[in-house]
Write a structure and sequence with these properties.
The model has no long low-confidence stretch (mean pLDDT 90). This protein has helices spanning 29-39, 58-65, 78-91, 104-110, 129-139, and strands at residues 2-4, 14-16, 48-52, 70-75, 97-101, 115-120, 142-153, 161-162, 165-173, 176-183. It has one domain: 3-Layer(aba) Sandwich (Rossmann fold), CATH 3.40.50.150. Helix 4 (104-110) packs parallel to helix 5 (129-139). The strands form 2 sheets. An 8-stranded mixed β-sheet has the order 5-4-3-6-7-10-9-8. Strands 1-2 form a two-stranded antiparallel ribbon. By secondary structure, the protein is an alpha/beta fold.
């Protein structure tokens, strides 16, 4: 199975995807288009992006295609990690993309970098939201003026605030709910 990049300079290019398995639920093209339409080009162009729970790297590759200056992708599954590395090579984006084989929790606990856009799309059955969003919200990993996009099950209700992260909007697409957060100061 292949996934198509839906916009930007790599629009129409295909990336590999893992075989359908429990917990593997790539973001649909409709949801990807909606996310990047809502956050707009100015939230991606020349920005530093973090793609957590990357799986295929589809959201990170969308950001690269739309002009991100750097994209860090975090994936703990070795097969998916290798697949992302293959996709980086296939798309010839080694100068922009960096792939980390790590759990999201470990990565966030050791990173000393700030991002303008953070994409969070874990498997629906994984519920680490409180820990992950609070870690990002308390440690200042998202720059002021940046955006965090969280795709999760529509049956899951996220809090309106995690540390300095505050929810701005939510949109429902089938069984997916996309929540948009930004840093609030005060």
């Amino acid at each position: 199975m292949s996934i198509r990049i839906s916009g930007g300079r790599l629009k129409g290019r295909l990336i590999g995807s893992p075989q359908v398995a429990n917990g593997v639920r790539p973001t649909t093209e409709r949801v990807k288009l909606a996310i990047f339409s809502i956050i707009s080009t100015c939230s991606v162009q020349d920005k530093s992006v973090l793609d957590l729970y990357s799986c295929t790297g589809a959201l990170g590759f969308e950001a690269i295609s739309r002009g991100a200056s750097t994209v860090d992708m975090v994936e703990k599954n070795f097969k998916n990690y290798k697949l992302i590395l293959e996709n980086v090579k296939k798309l010839e984006v080694q100068d922009v993309a960096k792939v980390y084989k790590s759990t999201v929790r470990d990565f966030l606990n050791h990173i000393n970098k700030k991002y303008e856009l953070i994409l969070v799309d874990p498997p629906f059955e994984l519920n680490e939201w409180e820990n992950i969003l609070m870690n990002i919200g308390q440690r200042g990993i998202l720059n002021s003026g940046g955006v965090l996009v969280a795709e999760h099950s529509s049956s899951l209700s996220l809090e309106k605030k995690y540390g300095e992260l505050e929810m701005l909007d939510q949109r429902k697409y089938g069984d997916s709910l996309v929540s948009f957060f930004e840093v609030c100061n005060g």
